[in-house]
Amino acid sequence: MCGFVGLLAGCALQRSPEGVGTSLGPEQAQAVIAAALPGGLADPAGWTRDIYTGFATQQLAVTEESVCAVVAVIEQESNFQVNPVIPGLGTIAWRQIDGRARQAGLPLAIVHGALALRSSDGRTYSQRIDAARTEKDLSDIFEDFIGEVPLGNRLFADLNPIRTRGPMQVNVAFARQYVNVRPYPYPLKGSLADALFTRRGSLYFGIAHLFAYQPPYHEYLFRFADFNAGQFASRNAAFQSAIGRISGRPLITDGALLPGDEQHGPGETQLALDALAPRLDTDARNIDDALHKGRSEDLEQTRIYQRVFALAERSAGHPLPRAIVPVIKLQGPKISRILTTSWYAHRVQGRFDRCLRRAR
Fold first, then answer.
1. 199-231: string of b/e by CB count within 10 Å (b at 16+)?
2. Which of 70, 114, 227, 359 has its CA 20 to 30 A from that of 41?
């Protein structure tokens, strides 16, 4: 995603991705959206309106390509279901609950006992979990439990485990960061996180995630990879590849330039750059500063980024790509088979190509 707060400020004002053409006028744009939608949808006029409004309210260009990118992501994430039914959701939820209980050091018997209490609708929390069919159902249960049961706050605090929501499966954290620089334009009924369960809210933030930043590549495949892995992840993966080439260290090109919160100390990318510091004519402080720009365009302006590619291309004897699909194995409670960011990006690309044939 497009950096945090300060970094988002520059991203929120981007008008259109390079290479996708001039934005269509309102009537033509809505006609293109309507043509791009798959057949058999319930309320196609509503989908057309909310997709168009998601672009227009953010002053983002509407083209055949940008529309089909959105349509392809929606198809991949939810098949145009605003609140899709997830088979076996209760079983998935219990795994999440038990895992969170172990992390919190709570005996499962105590946690399950608390969930046997009556909830606000008269059923026990356990009964509601077993009956949950959609992420919205499950999120409502967690919010109820957090607010009403003392143990709920210790177990989940503000960490409702339903983190991606709505037809574009937008991450709650992205939406919260984005509104700091571009206020949400619609009235809120409930929390911002609740708005992501609506079609309008999920499309608004999903379109922002796809287009409210300007990476150094035109190919939509890399935007689709970024939608899955985070804005600029494809650029960062290419940067890691170049670092690995000149450092001799085998780096995982996952697009994450800094380690996650669970890891203490510098990550492999930073260690490789630290070893290269004399050749890059820099020091650890400048390296750390550059890596913290990994979710913004500013990374490309740093001497470290430019010097790494200059050395790597000299070694290779030819220009190197500024984007590669990140190497990431997808993980999550809803994933039951081996999937990767590459699988995701190419799957969405196929849907994108088919959409363009419909729209044209």
1. bbbbbbbbbbbbbbbbbebeebbbbbbbbbbbb
2. 227
> Which H or E run includes 277?
helix 268-280
What does DSSP assign to residue 28?
A: H
- Read off the tokens for 92: 């998935």
**Three-state SS for 85?**
strand
HSE-CB for 100 with a 13 A CA cutoff? 22
Q: Which stretch of DSSP H or E encloses residue 170?
A: strand 170-171
Q: Poorest-confidence range of 93-102, 126-135, 313-322, 338-347?
A: 93-102
Single pTM value for the model: 0.84
What pLDDT sits at residue 7? 34
DSSP 8-state symbol, 24: P
Element (DSSP H or E) covering residue 203: helix 199-211
Which of 27, 21, 17 lies closest to 64, judged by CA?
A: 21
Distance CA 91, CA 333 (A): 10
pLDDT, tens digit, 9 for 90 and up, residues 326-349: 999 986 656 557 889 999 999 999
Q: How many angstroms separate the Cα of 189 from the Cα of each of 194, 196, 319? A: 8, 11, 51
Neighbouring C-beta atoms of residue 352, cutoff 10 Å? 22
CA angle 267, 270, 272 (to 5 degrees): 105
Q: At what angle do helices 341-359 and 26-36 cross, to 10 degrees?
A: 110
Question: What are the distances in angstroms from CA 161 to CA 99, 140, 155, 164, 334?
Answer: 11, 11, 11, 9, 12
Q: 231-240, 293-302, 335-344: which has the minimum mean pLDDT?
A: 335-344
